[in-house]
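dumping this here before i forget
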Amino acid sequence: MNQPRILYLQSGGPTAVLNASAQGVIETARKLGVSVYAARDGLAGLLEDRLVNTDGVSDHDIARLGFLPGGHFGVSRRMIGSFDECPADWLRMQEVLARHGIHYLLINGGNGSLGCAARLADFQRHTGHALHVIGVPKTIDNDLVGTDNSPGYGSAAKFLASTMLEVGMDMISMGRGRVFIMEAMGRHTGWLAAAPAAARIHGGQAPHIVLLPEVPFEQDRFLAAVDASLAAHGQCAISVAEGLVDASGRFVTEANASAVYGHEQLGGVGSWLAGLLKRERGLSAHVAQVDYLQRAAGHLASATDVEQAYRMGQQGVEWLLAGRSGVMAGIRRLSDHPYRWDVAAVALEEVGDQEKAFPAHFISADGYGVTQAFLDYLLPLMEGERMPPFRQGVPDYRRIEWPPV
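structure:
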């Protein structure tokens, strides 16, 4: 009998710990005597038969893989619709899988990627090719349903909170009248924009204002809050989500509608706010659009986040080989103090293409901050440091060469 073979692919935007899940997949498979192929550039690489064989890479390099930020096998926004929508893609996929004797598939991604995984769980019925499909969660947006948190979020939050803390101290040293705006990702949910609030846990002041998509923007009220912060503290640090909306529910800035993956291409809300403050108050604001920085900072990855990312990949392999299919490995929180968690199976059909909102009880009464309940939720996810090895003063992120199939 041929050796079982798992195909692993990364899909959607990377995180600082995405490759820790890949490490968990490969190391677990090796212990169980199973071969792992990976697709270059996610589903796009699968359809184009661009696969690599992880078996030819040393254990040392696989251990090093978990430290690397980004998606080391390459990611894409390419998705596969239902069989009725795109039968050619399904048949092409069946051809590639059959050629390589693959009957196990792990998709490591976010909402849209796991929606695709849910559709592919029905692969055998449409193509006749037996395929077990497991989803491995990943997104800095933390908006996956069915899991307490998403691997990637804890590290992004740690970066945002640490950066806000340091900027807040810088602002105090520069004297009164300073305004700083940090623009975080988040089209529809405020998970990332809320994270800098953790900078206040040790007595810091910044951020003074948090602007979330869940709270419609009101210009006069915002300007009054800035005035109050400058009067009380001498500075005003603002954390804002890219998806800030007005009272009608429209994004306050919307560059264009993207044809890729059906998402609006947002950005620039920080500069938009700076323009408003200049026009209405004569204030000059420094703006930081952290963009890729918040998801690429492997040097500040949370140890908790790394552990959970690895465990999700490990669990995916174990479930596949036990015959399970059509589920995602989700994180289940057991307690905040002390922080305890385990892994629970969640049906892919309940996860894919859904979005977990930022809860109302996490938002302060004035709408410009967060509650203690949110901090109790967030702080364990940022705990611990997993420093990468350094070489000549910078992280040793030398890439790994994967032999093509």
